[in-house]
Design brief:
Blueprint lengths: L18 E6 L5 H9 L3 E5 L6 E10 L2 E7 L11 H10 L10 E7 L3 H12 L5 E6 L1 H6 L3 E2 L1 H8 L3 E3 L8 H12 L18 H10 L5 H10 L7 H13 L4 H23 E2 L9 H9 L4 H42 L4 H18 L2 H17 L1 H15 L7 H6 L4 H6 L7 H10 L9 H11 L4 E2 L3 E2 H24 L23 H35 L3 H17 L4 H14 L2 H13 L6 H9 L6 H13 L6 H7 L11 H13 L4 H11 L3 H25 L1
Parallel strand pairs: 1-4, 1-5, 5-6, 6-8
Antiparallel strand pairs: 2-3, 3-4, 7-9, 10-11
Length: 716
């Protein structure tokens, strides 16, 4: 029998004996409070059996009392629809076999009190130990809202503590109240928030005969959702029979409950909350929304914001990138003259330093991209982008909630795909997962940058419009447009029919938290350097070996051939040495691999070296730059930059490798191709099948090849 009884130890409670569930509406300040309470003492995993993030941390309530804080997914009520809402629901109902919460810390947004009190009142009626943390008090004050906290506490029957996680205000008092509640100093409310017995009296009493420890309201949820609780077959059948015998109607019961709760909430608000006259002057947020969500100006402003975003990547990153490139050029030159001729010198210069330069030179652009995206999120504008895009999204089988994962895909497809969990409609979620990798992630940025710099002139129109920035924006728009087209096509093949809802809370506009922006930029740079960088370095070093060595007979024949030629023509030694390096590269293991796939990629304008880069890019797209740096460093041992080496690259017939047609074809290929093993792995995890990753990989590869072929033949 599932037991709802909650027991607490005495003062001797130890670290692992007290578990606190942190719950609240989305955008209520729950994450800020979690971070403020736990600090760096956090860990992230998954809730058992589901692909929903689980954040836990430890807080010291008193010197002898430490508790584990479990951050549950945000939800608006105790009637779940999404997978993450079901996770929170089962923990709150004590129906999760793996996670048992002794105490509930409920976050309530003071600036949206009426809406938040619905969820709050439902939890109170479960008759579990609850402490309410009242957040957003400064925002409520700016709106002219005044709350009688003592009166509110008396009406709810549970402790209410005003906190400001951003400024660490009220946290000591909150910890004290949590400790007192854990020690049963604060008792559970004696009466229900509403008379739940009136909702279905006979049905509730029948369920309570099976489970006497249930509150009236918990019994209602047993009637509605018992199929989702870990009950044996006998109990499931008994509850089902109770529903039939009493003609229990879940939909009618839920509607009546919500109506009664809002009637009581209205009374509480009238007695304990002073709100400004609705006819007063509109708030700044409302005025801004009149402009930014305008049916004409809103879209023009959105395009302007995106344009500035991509222009800034070039404007702001130009000088630091040039400085990093110059520094590595000087380092390579210094090492070339200082180190003795040995295999380890070659490995250091052409493997280690060349690979490292391919990583570090793009750090400024990645930091700028993530910094600007964080500013958009912090300011509240990112949610407006979702709102503006809903109408367009619905035409292609998606909805406005698909926009956030797709925009997140500009950073990385892996976490973006994981954020699709908040899309209730299964078809729309699956479509979003399938098209999100078409959004140009930050891993593609180094590829775009190096190729654009090779074939696009560094021109400015009207003194501020960068041609290179426009091309960059065009690549990002290409991925977005293709994602919409693919979604429109695929929606006819995916036969899942569910009602689709788009409910979005628009946060108020705020000044960005510059500390948060700075931390994000540094963190993303660190992840790129140490996570992606490790892969790049490993592949760069492996490529150096594959490029420097080959089948013994072939390499030996090549060296002997040029040794004779140099002996015969000593005056041409330098030229012959370059030809020797080039021919050795072609006969190396890497060269043999590239030559093998060259017939397949030749119609796209690619040579065998690009072919090697396409293969290594499946580990991580940004490896393309490191691969080219290694290949050309092995072939040409001089101190010129990678950009200079690529510009000078020639085919066997003497023509340039990186023409406009080839570079554009290659950029389009990287926009559309699925070259990320991590993304395929997370798609399999989210869809729980290999079917969809295979479909995704297949359609993206075909789309990339055919579109790149078309681009090459148009511009050649």
């Amino acid at each position: 029998m599932l037991c709802f009884a909650v027991t607490f130890a005495t003062c001797e409670m130890q670290t692992s004996s007290l578990h606190i569930a942190l719950v609240g509406n989305p955008n209520s300040g729950k994450t800020s409070l979690f971070n403020a309470l736990t600090g760096l003492n956090q860990k992230v995993g998954n809730f058992p059996g589901v692909t929903v993030d689980k954040k836990t941390g430890f807080i010291e309530l008193e010197t002898d009392l430490t508790a584990e804080l479990i951050d549950l997914p945000g939800t608006y009520s105790l009637y779940p629809r999404r997978a993450d809402e079901w996770v929170a629901y089962k923990v709150l109902m004590n129906a999760d076999e793996d996670i048992q919460a002794d105490l509930i810390l409920l976050v309530v947004d003071a600036s949206n009190l009426k809406r938040n009190l619905l969820f709050c009142s439902q939890i109170i009626d479960l008759k579990r130990p609850v402490v309410v943390a009242l957040t957003m008090n400064d925002l409520a004050a700016s709106k002219g809202i005044k709350i009688d906290i003592a009166g509110l506490e008396a009406e709810l029957g549970v402790p209410v503590v005003a906190v400001n996680p951003r400024k660490n205000k009220g946290l000591p008092q909150l910890k004290k109240i949590l400790a007192q509640t854990a020690r049963q100093v604060h008792k559970k409310p004696l009466r229900d928030f509403i008379d739940n017995k009136n909702l279905a009296s006979y049905s509730i009493e029948s369920v309570q005969q099976l489970y006497p420890e249930l509150s009236d309201y918990a019994a209602v949820h047993y009637l509605i959702n018992h199929e989702h609780f870990p009950l044996d077959a006998v109990m499931q059948n008994r509850i089902e029979q109770i529903e039939i015998d009493n003609k229990f109607n879940p939909t009618k019961t839920q509607a009546e409950e919500v109506m009664q709760r809002y009637q009581r909430i209205k009374q509480i608000m009238q007695q304990n909350v002073v709100e400004p006259d609705p006819l007063e002057k509109k708030l700044f947020t409302e005025k801004m929304d009149n402009l930014l969500l305008h049916r004409t100006w809103g879209y023009l402003i959105l395009l302007a914001v995106l344009f500035l975003l991509f222009q800034s990547i070039f404007w702001l990153a130009r000088f630091p990138m040039d400085g990093i490139e110059w520094s590595f050029k000087q380092l390579s030159g210094y090492l070339s003259t200082s180190l003795p001729e040995a295999w380890w010198s070659d490995l250091t210069i052409n493997g280690l330093v060349a690979g490292l330069s391919g990583i570090m030179v793009f750090v400024p652009q990645i930091m700028i991209l993530f910094g600007l995206i964080t500013i958009l999120e912090d300011s509240g504008y990112m949610a407006r982008i979702s709102f503006l895009s809903d109408k367009l999204m619905r035409k292609v089988g998606l909805n406005g909630k698909s926009v956030m994962p797709m925009i997140s895909g500009f950073a990385c497809a892996v976490p973006a795909i994981m954020t699709t969990r908040n899309i209730e409609n299964r078809k729309e979620r699956l479509l979003t997962i399938l098209v999100t990798p078409l959004m140009s992630c930050s891993a593609r940025l180094p590829v775009y940058t190096i190729l654009i710099s090779l074939v696009i002139d560094d021109k400015y129109y009207f003194g501020f419009l960068s041609l290179q920035g426009l091309v960059m924006m065009g690549l990002y728009l290409l991925g977005t447009v293709m994602a919409l087209i693919v979604s429109y096509v695929l929606k006819g093949f995916i036969k899942l029919k569910e009602k689709s809802f788009f409910i979005l809370e628009l946060p108020t506009y705020r000044a960005p938290r510059w500390k948060n922006v700075g931390i994000t930029m540094i963190e993303k740079a660190r992840i790129f350097v140490f996570d992606a960088g490790k892969i790049i370095m490993i592949i760069s070093l492996a490529l150096w070996f594959l490029s420097a060595y080959g089948p013994g007979s072939r390499m030996e024949q090549t060296e002997n051939k040029y040794a004779v030629l140099i002996q015969q023509h000593p005056a041409q030694k330098d030229s012959l040495q370059k030809h020797l390096s080039s021919e050795k590269l072609q006969n190396s293991y890497a060269g043999i691999l590239g030559k093998t796939i060259e017939p397949v990629i030749k119609p796209l304008g690619y040579d065998w070296k690009i072919g090697i880069a396409l293969i290594t890019s499946f580990a991580a797209r940004e490896v393309f730059v490191g691969t080219m740096a290694t290949l050309y460093s092995v072939e040409e041992s001089d101190d010129s930059t990678l950009r200079e080496k690529l510009q000078a690259a020639k085919r066997e017939d003497g023509t340039k490798v990186y023409t406009l047609a080839t570079a554009l074809s290659l950029m389009v290929f990287y926009v559309l191709a699925m070259q990320c093993m991590s993304t395929l792995a997370v798609v399999k995890r989210e869809t729980r099948s290999w079917k969809w990753p295979v479909i995704q990989f297949s359609y993206m590869t075909i789309l990339a090849y055919s579109t790149s072929l078309l681009v090459y033949w148009l511009f050649r």
